Amino acid sequence: MRVVKLLICIVHNRDKGKIVDELVRAGFKFTIIGSTGGFLREGNTTFLIGVEEDELPAVLKLISQNCKTREQLVNVTPIEAAPPGAFIPSPVKVPVGGAVVFVLDVARFERY
After folding, report:
1. Is residue 25 part of a domain?
2. Distance (Å, rounded) from C-alpha 42 to C-alpha 58?
């Protein structure tokens, strides 16, 4: 009996192209879902990737090599939400990008 894993991989839209190219080049099948991040409300891409257990290290390595965290300046309080005359804080550096990957066991897999 083969063991199948489902990876739910969330990446910043800036990393989407690199990941798509590398997954295709390596022969992995995947589905893309557009999503939005909570903190910065920026575009993300969620990949659903099904792999056999022995392929898991290769796909995780591919993701880690192509999704890097970087810093971005953001305003803590949106200017339009601040009351007139309010102090507007300086932008703050926050880490963005990288990838979040959930690896789930698949109880059953069928392809028709």
Report:
1. yes
2. 28
